[in-house]
Amino acid sequence: MRLTLCSLLAVLPLVAYATPSPVTRISLNKRRTLTDENGVVDPSKLQQEVNKAMGKMSRGFQAFEQNTGTAHPNAFAPGTIQRRATAAVPLTDDGGQLWQGSISVGTPAVSFTVDFDTGSSDLFLPGTNCRVNCQGHKAFNTASSSTARDLKKTFSLAFGDGSTVEGEQFSDTVTIGSLKATTQTVGAATQYSTGFAIAEFPPDGLMGMGFPQIS
């Protein structure tokens, strides 16, 4: 069968498109690391990288608003919240895994030891009704605090290591260093998993230092 000139012209573009384009290769250089010569993270270098990332996001949000006339929905994310106050709390290094310190809860104030956890946003302590894995921890007695209020809600938390906590929600006054929060939600645990038993977890409870949106 003989192909006409029109047929050949119709086939030629298909042949051209089927031919793979040459691959363009770009040499990459590894940027400086965040560690020193001993392999230990350098806090100043880490802070510089965080500042650079925050600057990029800020410029991107500004450009979005200039181009669209509307603020980006993430422009007011937790990272943009301004620091309102600071306080100092002595911390104890527990085996290089936990940083624990003291907080006060209730009226009159009662001191508890908590793990300050930057990866969560919830505060919980063993409640007086906790009968599972709470032995050895100081209990949060809501009946003894004049500022404690029962929120009539329960809670259930699960952590990355498989540890879990269940209990009831109250609000009360919480003091950390020189900072005081009123009507702060506090979980009164009714059950700790073995991961929060005294042998595995020396602090009484845990205070999440993360954003409220992940609570």
Automatic annotation (TrEMBL):
Record GO biological process: proteolysis
UniProt KW keywords: Disulfide bond, Signal
Cystine bridges: which residues? C130-C134
Pfam annotation, one family:
Asp
Q: Do you know which PROSITE patterns this protein is assigned to? A: PEPTIDASE_A1
Keyword Cell membrane applies: no
The answer to whether the entry has keyword Disulfide bond is: yes
InterPro entries, A to Z? Aspartic_peptidase_A1, Pepsin-like_dom, PEPTIDASE_A1, Peptidase_aspartic_dom_sf
Signal peptide annotation:
1-18
A GO molecular-function annotation: aspartic-type endopeptidase activity
Span of domain Peptidase A1:
99-215
Q: What does the sequence similarity comment in the record state about its family?
A: Belongs to the peptidase A1 family.
Q: Which PANTHER family does its entry note?
A: BETA-SITE APP-CLEAVING ENZYME, ISOFORM A-RELATED, PEPTIDASE A1 DOMAIN-CONTAINING PROTEIN
* Name by which UniProt lists this protein: Peptidase A1 domain-containing protein
Q: What species does this protein belong to?
A: Sphaerobolus stellatus (strain SS14)
What are the leading ranks of the lineage?
Eukaryota, Fungi, Dikarya, Basidiomycota, Agaricomycotina
